[in-house]
Each structure stands twice: as structure tokens, then as C-alpha cells.
Specification:
Strand order of the largest sheet: 3-6-7-8-9-10
Radius of gyration: 23 Å
Number of helices: 8
Strand content: 15-25%
Number of strands: 10
Distance between the termini: 74 Å
């Protein structure tokens, strides 16, 4: 009885891309063996007897299929990002997409625990504050993060900015992978007073997300989000995010202000009733 071909996962698809873009030198590892067993790659000997690996016709088809799947997922993600930003702008907030911000991690990464534990750990003075105490070498860690949507209130009072991060997820696999990144959530909470996960319909709920984060459900299918990019979306509150003030001069870390200055916020909706 022939052996059942192994299931093809993300590691196999990454290897297919690498083999397609390279000279095809073999690694002789498990992923390579499973690709050979599945018939997605084949061995080729040159005139000197050296063996290289090349994608078979089935491997090329799998590579194209995976690329198209990634493109659709990316399109749905970007569409929902723009829809969330438009929704926040309609609510009167200033919202930015695609920021790149360096955040201080003043404590060692720790497992996700009760909300009060994580927020208490992040309540220490931020390293951007002029009067913050010098961090010890063990705690002087930084993370470069790219929040999907970063927003603040339109106000001239620093204490009322209420900065928020909205992390957008359109697939359950992406959600579960992101929830393992404890440092990433700690970095977001060092830059904002509240962190929300926005979940596409059907990929999860509040039970999947740590209590330090709020949860919003975006009504509509991934295809609808891609096609309605830039239009507000209906967000159903499953859990409000615990909020805390960022007690800093100017209300935000200086690095965040610089990142906001380099990018334009989401355009405000041109609605006649908005000012009423």
C-alpha cells in the first residue's frame, strides 16, 4: 500500500519559494524529504554529478496557488485595516495606518497573565520621559512594531489623547500566531493606553484573546472587506479594552510623535452631519 503524502504547510511553501529563487542546492532535511515524497520537487544531476533540486510541474502549481492565497489574504487584511481606520476617523479620532515605531520593553517578557499584572508591569515610567530613571542593562530592551491602526483623540489636552492600537486579524492562523508574541503586545501597551484586536467574522472571539486586550468583531466576509476598502465597517464590541493613561510629557512618547509627523492620518469623512 503506497504511503500517504505528507500534508503541505507553510514551511513547505517557504521552501518552494526559496528553491524557485535559488540554485536549488539540497538541505537534506525533513521539509525537503516531504517535498520530494509529495512530488513537488525533483532531483536533477548535472554533468559533474552534482545534485540540485528543482520544482516539478506540481510544485510550480502549488507555489502559484499559495501566492494567490497569500495575495487574497493580504488584500482582505489591508481592506479591513483601511475600514477600521475610516471607522475611527468617522468617530472623530485621528488614525494612522502602517506606522513603524520603536517601543521600550522595560520588563522581561512574561507569560500572559491577568490584566492587572500586565498593565502594572507596563505602568513603569517610559524610557522616552526626560525624568525616567536609567534602565538597567537587563531591562533596556526595545521592540520595533508596526501597529495596523494607531489613533488618538482630536484634542489639545495631552491627558485626553487616549491613544489606541487596533490589531487586525482576518485568519485564525494569523490570530493564534500573533497571540504567542508577548513582547509585541507589551510594546503596543507601552505606546498606547488601550489595545484592541479586531477579528474578521468567524475566526475567533474574546475567549481567544488575553484579558489585557479589547476585542471587536468586524461584520462581513474577508472578500467584502477587500472590496469595501476605505469604507467604515460595523464593529461589534465583545470586550472593552482596559485603559490606562500614558503619564508622559506631551501625552505620548517622543518617538511616537515623530512617527505620526512622518505620515498623514486617515482622511476625515466629508459628511455634512459630522459637526452636529
Amino acid at each position: 500500500m503506497p504511503a500517504t503524502p505528507p500534508p503541505i504547510g507553510s514551511a513547505h511553501r517557504r521552501r518552494l519559494r526559496l528553491l524557485w529563487q535559488s540554485a536549488g542546492w539540497p538541505c537534506h532535511d525533513r521539509v525537503e524529504a516531504e517535498l520530494l515524497a509529495a512530488g513537488l520537487v525533483q532531483r536533477v544531476l548535472d554533468e559533474q554529478g552534482r545534485m540540485t533540486l528543482h520544482l516539478s510541474d506540481a510544485g510550480v502549481q502549488e507555489l502559484v496557488r499559495a501566492s494567490e492565497q497569500n495575495r487574497r489574504a493580504r488584500s482582505a487584511h489591508d481592506g479591513l485595516v483601511s475600514r477600521v481606520a475610516a471607522t475611527l476617523a468617522r468617530e472623530g479620532r485621528l488614525a494612522w495606518c502602517g506606522l513603524s515605531v520603536r517601543a521600550p520593553l522595560a520588563v522581561e517578557a512574561h507569560p500572559v497573565g491577568p490584566t492587572e499584572d500586565l498593565l502594572a508591569a507596563l505602568a513603569e515610567p517610559a524610557l522616552d520621559a526626560p525624568d525616567a530613571p536609567a534602565a538597567s542593562p537587563a531591562s533596556n530592551r526595545w521592540a520595533l512594531v508596526l501597529p495596523d491602526v494607531y489613533s488618538i483623540r482630536q484634542t489639545s489636552a495631552a491627558a485626553w489623547l487616549q491613544p489606541q492600537v487596533h490589531e487586525i486579524k482576518v485568519s485564525r492562523a494569523d490570530l493564534l500566531a500573533d497571540l504567542r508574541l508577548v513582547d509585541k503586545r507589551a510594546a503596543y501597551l507601552a505606546l498606547a493606553g488601550a489595545l484592541y484586536y479586531v477579528l474578521a467574522e468567524g475566526i475567533g472571539d474574546a475567549d481567544d484573546v488575553p484579558p489585557a486586550c479589547g476585542v471587536l468583531l468586524a461584520r462581513g466576509s474577508p472578500r467584502e472587506h477587500a472590496e469595501a476598502a476605505g469604507q467604515p465597517v460595523l464593529l461589534e464590541v465583545q470586550r472593552l479594552a482596559p485603559t490606562r493613561p500614558l503619564d508622559l510629557p506631551g501625552g505620548l512618547p517622543f518617538g511616537v510623535w515623530m512617527a505620526l509627523a512622518r505620515k498623514a492620518p486617515q482622511a476625515q469623512p466629508d459628511e455634512g452631519q459630522l459637526g452636529l
